[in-house]
Design brief:
Two copies of one chain form a homodimer.
Chain A (H helix, E strand, L loop, with lengths): L2 H12 L9 H4 L4 E9 L2 H14 L13 H6 L2 E9 L2 E9 L7 H9 L8 E7 L2 H4 L8 H9 L6 E6 L6 H13 L4 E4 L11 H19 L4 E3 L9 H10 L5 E3 L1 H4 L3 H7 L7 E3 L14 E2 L1 H12 L3 E5 L9 H12 L9 E5 L4 H11 L4 E4 L1 H5 L4 H13 L2
Parallel strand pairs in A: 4-10, 5-6, 5-13, 6-7, 8-9, 9-11, 11-12
Antiparallel strand pairs in A: 1-3, 1-4, 2-3
């Protein structure tokens, strides 16, 4: 089974070679990671809630019967800071032993927010990750520098087109890809609704689109990547990615909200793949659309996606048809670029909303290090898709 | 790769053997499934939102450039019903072609709520599933009847104990399992925070707990199941489940919020496993804790988990330390038992909250067809875990 290698890989990460009879205290490094939670309610209630989180997220046991010693002292979360943040909310920074995470994304997220996700009035604001925990993950394989180097685009924003709408055949989507590629687009992705439908099979689509993009590239002499949506059932994610690579895919897009919170990591870490990964936010919206629950935009779409190894993280730009604010988008962009234990910086990939009017504002927030996702706009500007692509490439180049 | 068999398996499900050049219209069966969404806001806004959902969840394309013909007529969602439900909210029932789902849980959920999850004020209330779509999934392998038959418990509620707290060694947890098993507990599960930590490795825990439970069963002559938490990284879920079965696990618990929305299905459908599956709600809470976004309790923890193949679906009972109401719990229980294209009925598994006071009220809501999850209560009643188990088994038997 191909999982075994990873089992061992993970095992090495925090393993202090425990012997039978080794005490818990000898197995813990003492290194802790932190989570700041925003808590709604009065100060007393908020503090009680913080204390409950310390237990709920670890021992899931009442305080009075939690065994004294290293379990109470080190496994149970600790409130490191508690303060008012205004607007009737409080911030509690709680620390956990890194060993509780088992060095995996799934168990890390379980400790951060597993059962507490069912508690109203608790929002994960920010993660504080020590280098030892960050070191358990490979992180982004390419990041900004790697992608720019591959594409030969040193400084302007990158542009990504989406193949759509659902219902077109693989041949029709490949024709679209060809036209966009001729127009100089950097990245061409499947729309996230393209799966393995009877009217457009995954393998046929990947084969045709990869071929079309390669053909266009040989005409223009420019590099670009075709990025299929590899979101799939649990037992088809890696096989699908392997097959897509064989068929000529240059990168992958995946929706961790659907394929699992570990989907980005498994694609990014697999050395037999070795291609860039774009994380798409489908089905993750309920974590951010309420002010009082879930995650902050920066923690979910920035910190977690980067830790998972995404080279690009998609989210809807402000002013489009979704509700993310300019400030929330900036938060994501900041988390893509801030110092993070030596991990590569990654691209925020705001979707939609690019107009000549808004170009300067996007430049102000993102600088030039972003991937502009173009959907309907690229199709609608005129009936000539290649000319539309050229038009937007020119606009982006002038930023 | 073991995924290929499933690829072909899925392919058969809706496949009309498309030939090159086949028209889209010939590939669609005309069968549609429905989703009722609750929409906040004024009537005009809510209706506009419903219309946007029809496009967003399918073509993700502006209406004015969506190709006329079968894409506009059949791929785009259709508003089948729109009505006020009071409290300033509206219900829109929207239908989609079943072929859009590709016959998979992940793409089904993507069509139901993918990008719309990022839209505030939209909640999925209920799914309307035609038999042809339900037939794409195996569903629960055991269900109520199968589990009752295996355990030899014809009618009383089942009782499930949780091994905890995090920080105990595999040997200590196995001792706990042994004591609970002697006391007559039906199902013994890992706490959902037990993963593959350095202080309690997955393989050692499963081996020791399975052995302890088998030893107790041979003393009592009663059947019971040890149910490890197999929630794991994407490439370790199935290998871990296979290994756990080899080591004596009798069922599995998994957290689809962490391991992926397809995790329950892949475990339930795999014929080389063939064990009962319990779905745990960790990390799914943000979908239900706000009234205005996400899913209804019944849709998420009832309909979706059952469609995925869970034999038992865990959720926090009312009156405990979480916020689910009595009515929300009843909604889940109803979805576990209602007619659903011939799929087996499954057990609601309310966690916590069982006291002698509340016993009759639980009986009123759940009848006798539920799994009572006992956490701290089973540990706290007295220091003698076997006696505690006996005490609660007696109480439950009298329901």
């Amino acid at each position: 089974m191909f999982g075994d290698k990873h089992l061992d890989g993970t095992r090495r990460r925090f393993d202090n070679s425990p012997m039978a009879g080794t005490n818990l205290v000898d197995l813990l490094s003492g290194v802790r990671f932190g989570v700041s939670y925003l808590l709604s309610g009065g100060e007393k209630d908020a503090h009680l809630k913080a204390k409950e989180i310390c237990y709920e997220q670890t021992v899931e046991f009442p305080e009075d019967i939690t065994p004294a010693g290293p379990i109470a002292d080190s496994i149970v979360g600790k409130i490191e800071e508690f303060s008012a943040v205004g607007g009737g909310r409080f911030r509690a920074r709680i620390s956990y032993a890194i060993e509780c995470t088992a060095g995996t994304i799934v168990q890390f997220l379980n400790v951060v927010f597993g059962n507490t996700s069912m508690q109203p009035g608790v929002k994960v604001e920010r993660l504080f990750l020590p280098n030892r925990l960050i070191g358990a993950f490979r992180g982004p394989r390419f990041g900004r520098e790697g992608l720019r180097a591959f594409l030969g685009v040193p400084s302007r924003p990158l542009v990504c087109a989406a193949l759509k709408p659902m219902g077109l055949s693989a041949a029709e989507l490949a024709e679209q890809a060809y036209k966009f590629a001729l127009g100089g687009i950097d990245l061409i992705k499947d729309d996230h609704g393209l799966s393995d439908q009877v009217f457009c099979r995954f393998e046929e689509r990947v084969a045709r689109c990869a071929e079309a993009v390669a053909r266009a590239a040989s005409r223009t002499g420019r590099r670009l990547l075709y990025m299929p949506n590899v979101t799939a059932p649990a037992d088809r994610l890696l096989p699908g990615a392997y097959r897509a690579k064989e068929l000529g895919a240059g990168a992958f897009m995946v929706c961790p909200g659907l394929a699992g919170m570990d989907a980005v990591r498994v694609l990014a870490e697999d050395d037999s793949i070795g291609l860039p990964v774009m994380a798409h936010p489908a089905f993750l919206g309920s974590f951010v659309t309420s002010e009082e629950i879930g995650f902050s935009h920066g923690a979910l779409f920035g910190q977690i996606m980067r830790l998972s190894g995404a080279d690009m993280t998609v989210f809807p730009n402000w002013g489009g048809r979704f509700s993310f604010s300019r400030e929330e988008c900036r938060q994501i962009a900041d988390a893509c670029a801030e110092e993070m234990g030596g991990m590569r910086t990654i691209f925020p990939a705001p979707g939609g909303g690019m107009t000549t009017d808004r170009a300067q504002d996007m430049r102000d927030v993102y600088g030039r290090d972003f991937v502009l996702l173009m959907g309907g706009g690229l199709h609608r500007h005129s009936p000539d898709l290649t000319r539309n692509a050229e038009y937007f490439m020119e606009m982006v180049s002038s930023l």
